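fyi for ur records
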Amino acid sequence: MNARPVKHSLTLKGHRTSVTLEDAFWAEFRAIARRRGLAINALAAEIDAGRDYETGLASAIRLYILEDLKAQAAASAS
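which gave:
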């Protein structure tokens, strides 16, 4: 896996935007979308709608992934 951030295009509210994340984050982002039965753009739109607009979209996605991983770890520890 590449540790360098990679730029990908997403469509949010009908507009193309690009988000730069490391490969590990892209892989986990896709896995979360698959597990939730969502398209990657739909998950990104959900995160975008819930973020504080002082927080960049890439940062919001990373934080979402971190929270998801923490929730999975807590569930498996129970």
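Strands lie at 6-12, 15-21. thats all i got for now
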